[in-house]
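Limitations

Structures in this collection are predictions, not experimental determinations, and the ligand pose is part of the prediction. Treat each record accordingly. The example that follows, with zinc ion as the small molecule, is included so readers can see exactly what is and is not provided: the inputs are given verbatim, and the output is the predicted complex.
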Amino acid sequence: MKCIFCKHVSDDSKSVEHIIPESLGNTKNVLPRCVVCDKCNNYFSRKIEQPLLEQLFFKNLRGRNWIESKKGKIPPEEIMYIGAKEKAILHRNEKGTPKMILDIHDQNFFQKIFTGQKKELIFPFEIERPEANNRTIARFLGKIGVEALAQKWVGHVGWEEYHISHEGLDLLRNYVRYNTPNIEWPYSVRKIYGENEQFRISHNDNQENLDVLYEYDFLMEQVGIDLYETYICVAIKGYEFVLNVAGPEISGYIDWLKRNNNISPLYLKKNNKENPILPSDNFLPGQK
Ligand SMILES: [Zn+2]
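Predicted complex:
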């Protein structure tokens, strides 16, 4: 068997590849071993996922939502209270026994709060947004795109050969795996629902109210006879990211949105948000 990124023989690879990082709560969506070789798996973890999860948006998102890393840790959340001169750091322990500790750096500011000189403590909830033009995010989305195609095709006769010899994927493969060429690969990012919005979701044969941690699917847009643009659409806690798998161009998606009343492709098959389309169990069980 060959790796879908570097195309080297991967038969002795031991690790399974998580399409969405484990530290973003993914335990279900994995590719079987050998689909992505150990070397590529390790590279993605060090050069794409770790830097991504260190970005303030993802770090604070994981903190606020108590999303544990694969080692069971919840990253500290950095909070800039309005009027304070330095950030406060909110530490959370593991889910079992919720406990929060606020590490205050601007003593002066909090002294005024405690003594009543200052009467309001404004918490700037959701002040940070994911970056709209960031190479790590683009490469992260590209990695999901290449891997989600493999996930779709796995099991079909000759799928590996079809995926690996598909020249249309080589530009993105190289961009993700080798960080070349030095071009910008634009993506679309916008908010499609609130971070803690709840949905009626079929779960364990029941309909339950749950919030969605992440979801992803493809949008295939016909642009000519037998010619399709393929977009990978990923939503993480209500933020939708879309990247064109075939080339560094996003204008086709922006046009598609205009023609489709800005609906998210993730909700295309349903006319309301009652039933988000989930590729599998891609949600964080929330409160009822
Ligand atoms: Zn590889």
